[in-house]
Amino acid sequence: MSTKSEKTYISVQEFISSWEKEMYELNHLDYFIFKLINHLGYQIEHNYFNSIKPSNYLLVDPEEIGTLSFNLGDSLESFLENNCFGDCAMSCPTRLDEPVDPEEIRARNDQLQLIQLENGADFNKRNFFVNDILNYVVIDTLFDFYHYEMGLNLDDTDLSLIQFADFISSILEKFMDAQAQTLLSNPKDSSTELFNKLMYDANPTWGEDFEAALEDEDDESEIWKYGDLHIHQVIEEYLSELKDNENEMVLVHKLLERFQVYAEQYAGLKRIDEIEEEDMEEFFLFWLIREITFEKDISPYTIKRVFHKFFKWLELAREVDLKNRYDRLMTAHFASMQNVLFCSRSYFDRNSVIDGVIESNTCGDQVISGLFEIEKILKNGLIQVRDILLNKKYLNVQINFNDTAKLINRAILSATMKPTAYGWRCVNIDYIFPQAARPFLT
User: Fold this and answer.
1) What is the pLDDT, as a whole number, of residue 152?
2) Which of 33-36's residues contact partners 24+ apart within 8 Å by CB, and which partners?
3) Residue in 186, 206, 168, 176 with CA at minimum distance from that of residue 72
4) Is the confidence at residue 217, as pLDDT, over 50?
5) Contacts 24+ apart (CB under 8 A), 54-61
6) What is the pLDDT of residues 76-117, one digit of tens each?
7) Which residues pair with 369 in a beta bridge?
8) Assuming Cys at both sites, which of 1, 283, 326, 436 could form a disulfide with 178, CB separation 3.0 to 4.6 Å?
9) What DSSP line would sit under 313-331, residue for residue?
10) pLDDT of amino acid 192
């Protein structure tokens, strides 16, 4: 299965900088996933999207195809690493055509597939593996991508989505057949040489540049490593070294400039090593969400990717360890950050900010404004909230939102409400914050 003539959706440099490993840590599984991402992107663009109507809501542009393919590769890598190359002894990726031992399924307590076996169904490891990949990798990733990146509310009854998932699963299966024996028989073996070759093919002077960087690192002055830690200087140097594509650079500049403004002007910090865990939480959970609610070009995944690369560089170039704090924060709160940004943007797609302000101003003393924590989301679309400053509860609150079910309990609305005959109605929402932002709101 040659990929030489296929379009590159993520370069080897971008892949390595986005992966949470150093060059010497990369293994055969990582190399397999890198090749898969580009192959999958090509297949999606040229053999699936070309076959559906231009009006189909699943169509995305090539850059977003790259993001989707990366997300699928990332999810598959986690699945393989934590399951197939973890506790599971079935070795499905390299033994797809072997029959399944019923005891292996019993050990996993997989009731549906156990029933199929006991009823005499022909069920080998290929069926077992592809079924798992479809349900736990492909469909979950598609839901997240179209929900958070594209703002589409899809479910498991959406025929177009299921057909797309089946296509992707088929591509993954074929790619596994072609590449698994070579790369996944020993998935943890080093692939540094393979990646080095790819880097050299992409840039013949890469090896020389790398050696020069090492020599600079050993220079007795080591100014780049132990120099001034003023925040603006650190960010300026990082941006000067960065070599991303033009569109990505615009977003990197936007986000890091906001980080600098927050640290220096809002938090009163001057040195990058003064930033504490509480500052990180305030920036990502409150300050940044407030700043980018209306900037749809900045997705949650963009935030995650940009700051992961920045804090990783910071650890290497300045020996300032903010990356561990950042990783803990993202693990705990990334899903809620995604949700509130999606819900905020969905609300403003449907509601005019100006109209909301005008209605608030014309209602006189009837309206109340405040910070309201969602306590309950009712099936009829109404919500129950509590004012977090006055500790007062409001029942039967109506909110003009496409799908109230997408809201999550404990999210906090910065909103204005007015009374109705049956309860209350939100006439204006300024922002939606995750529950973890509460300490920075009161």
Assistant:
1) 86
2) 33/73, 33/74, 33/76, 33/77, 34/10, 34/73, 34/195, 35/3, 35/179, 36/73, 36/76, 36/172, 36/175, 36/179
3) 168
4) no
5) 56/160, 57/152, 57/160, 58/146, 58/160, 58/161, 58/164, 60/150
6) 888 887 765 655 555 455 455 566 666 655 555 454 444 344
7) 416
8) 1
9) HHHHHH----HHHHHHHHH
10) 83
pLDDT reading at 303 higher than 70 = yes
CA 176 to CA 76: how far, in whole Å? 11
Share of the chain above pLDDT 90, in %: 33
Q: Give bridge partners of residue 377 from the DSSP assignment.
A: 383
Pairing of strands 392-398, 424-433: parallel
CA–CA distance, 272 with 258 (Å, rounded to integer): 14
User: Contact 236/264 with Cβ under 8 angstroms?
Assistant: no
**Tokens standing for 442?**
């009161």
Tokens for 58, please give them. 């699943």
Work out the pLDDT band at 440, boundaries 50, 70, 90. very high
Mind listing the domains of the chain with CATH numbers? Answer: 12-194 (no CATH), 219-341 (1.10.150), 351-440 (2.40.50.140)
Structure tokens at 341: 């940004």
Structure tokens at 294: 């209306």
Q: What's the confidence (pLDDT) of residue 87?
A: 53
Element (H, E) at 373: strand 368-377
Question: Which residue's structure tokens are 């290497």?
Answer: 316
DSSP state of 190: B
Tokens of 252: 């990197």
pLDDT, tens only, 133-155: 888 889 989 988 998 888 888 87
Alpha-carbon span 329 to 277, nearest angstrom: 9
**Strand, coil or helix: 64:** helix
CB < 8 Å & 24+ apart, contacts of 355-359: 356/416, 356/427, 356/428, 356/429, 357/428, 359/418, 359/427, 359/428
User: Which of 85, 131, 89 is CA-nearest to residue 107?
Assistant: 89
Residue 281's identity, in one-letter code, is E
For 117-133, give the DSSP string: HHTT---BHHHHHHHHH
Are residues 65 and 147 in contact, defined by beta-carbon separation less than 8 angstroms?
no
Contact 139, 160 (CB under 8 A): no
Q: Find tokens 């053999």 and name the residue.
A: 47
Other CB atoms within a 10 A radius of the CB of residue 233 amount to 13
